[in-house]
Amino acid sequence: MKNKTEQQEALFSTDQIRELIVFALGVIQRRWRLLLAPIAATLVLALIAVKLSPMTYTTKALLLIQSANRPAAGAQLQSTNNFTRQVVMDQVAALETWLKSDEVLGGLLPRLVDPATLTTPEGIEAQLKIVRASLTMEVVGGSAVEIRLDGRDPRGLAGKLEAIVERLMEGLTRPEKGILNSTQFIELQRREAVANAEAALSRAILMAGIVDNEKTRNVLKQINDYKLQLIANGSGPGSLRAETSAIGNSIRTLRAQLTDDQKVADRLELLYAEYHVARSGSADLRGSLSSTRSNYIGIFESPENLLIVGRPQDPVYGQRPAKKLAIVAILFSVMAAAALVIAAELLNRRLFMSAQFRAVSGLPVIMRVPA
Fold this sequence. Notes:
Layout: H1 2-30, H2 32-52, E1 57-65, H3 77-99, H4 102-112, H5 121-134, E2 135-140, E3 144-151, H6 157-173, H7 182-207, H8 213-233, H9 240-244, H10 246-258, H11 262-284, E4 306-309, H12 322-347, H13 354-361
Antiparallel strand pairs: 1-3, 1-4, 2-3
Helix pairs in contact: 2-12, 4-5, 4-6, 7-11, 8-10, 8-11
């Protein structure tokens, strides 16, 4: 009895599967236009897009980091290798950011693009964006760096990548001119502040119609020294005590030597005070700008640790980037077509399966007449 029941259940399950297959084939037969229309339209558009999309060529350069190939001793071999790979990946990411900066890549642009496109700031910015997007760096296995350069024209593409690799090697193995340590940067900023303040003072003296620039500066220096002395004595300029003191009388005498215009005299005194502050700040920071500066990044212990595998070659074959987008679009169109068919069947009130009839009527299905 038990075996008979199991056979009936198995037979019933087989009938259900067969009915589902028949139903699915019926759906495809009824809805084939709705199923194929989105796929066919997307396929045609994808083929047109692939045909019209430009061909892209890629050239590569492989750099081996010799120090990263040294095996680690002891039981911590795996963890050490993982740590080394992570360090190399972090440094290569920083190196790529440096290489794509305006300062570095901007200096390479005349060797990478047509100089005629660099005649305007807008043209330079547009070419920088194009080169940044076409240049990529990737760590391979933790001990190699692959540099790729994409382009529309295969001719001369290898030479452009060699120019980039050359600039990369220069930044890694030689002192980098555009890099300052904190002390050098602060001193450079303060020297520029002194130069700007001095230029502003000279312009103001010239606009005031004063011929003797050096004498005017000496007078302004004396006035500024007297003001500092008043501040040190606890009576700032403008106070009653300062105006009635001997120092106040000396300041008024010196002002008379500058000009009769009080506003011009105040302007010159203010500019000289700013110049004095800038000079004092620059003098507080001792040291000079060194001509020897360290490298930007230190992956390598010495230049010999960097091995360049061959030289880049101009690519022979290219690829169309639109192919990947076309494949993705076709897959989405298949999904969209299936969704449309399912939605159409859900809105259809006709009964095609025995399970649907039982659910609606509550009566058992005795037999089914084939179409």
